[in-house]
Amino acid sequence: MLAFGAVADVLGLPAKEIAARSPFGLMSRIEDGLPVGALDRMARLLAPSDAHFKYRLVPKATYERRKTALRLSSDEGTRLARVARVWSLALDVWQTETEAREFLFRSHPMLEDRRPIDVVIQNEIGAELVLDILGGLKYGSAA
């Protein structure tokens, strides 16, 4: 099972913020609005050479408004946490950021040749499909 602390770390939430490392604490943090910096951090981690990747998670005009408010909406935070969850497990499975990125950005036959990152961004069901593949790789079933 994925540690909520790992998701909080990927989102860049302060280590001293113990509450954000529990399931309900993280849920509250998302509901209250994750900092815009969490989006910037995720975009740098997942696609360091693509300055526009963050706009796949939050549209550009919305991102500009959020920069002023300094917070993401609950829905945007939920999407970001979903991506963070998958990224955390991909890192755990592949052990390096480069290999985790290669997995996420390469078409996968178990996803009808779609890229895992695209499926994860699309919705929660897509994220579960990718998490199942990563779980299979981690725990030994074919993927």
UniProtKB/TrEMBL annotation:
<dbReference type="GO" id="GO:0003677">
    <property type="term" value="F:DNA binding"/>
</dbReference>
<protein>
    <submittedName>
        <fullName>Putative toxin-antitoxin system antitoxin component, TIGR02293 family</fullName>
    </submittedName>
</protein>
<dbReference type="Pfam" id="PF09722">
    <property type="entry name" value="Xre_MbcA_ParS_C"/>
</dbReference>
<dbReference type="InterPro" id="IPR011979">
    <property type="entry name" value="Antitox_Xre"/>
</dbReference>
<dbReference type="InterPro" id="IPR046847">
    <property type="entry name" value="Xre-like_HTH"/>
</dbReference>
<feature type="domain" description="Antitoxin Xre-like helix-turn-helix">
    <location>
        <begin position="27"/>
        <end position="85"/>
    </location>
</feature>
<dbReference type="InterPro" id="IPR024467">
    <property type="entry name" value="Xre/MbcA/ParS-like_toxin-bd"/>
</dbReference>
<dbReference type="Pfam" id="PF20432">
    <property type="entry name" value="Xre-like-HTH"/>
</dbReference>
<feature type="domain" description="Antitoxin Xre/MbcA/ParS-like toxin-binding">
    <location>
        <begin position="90"/>
        <end position="140"/>
    </location>
</feature>
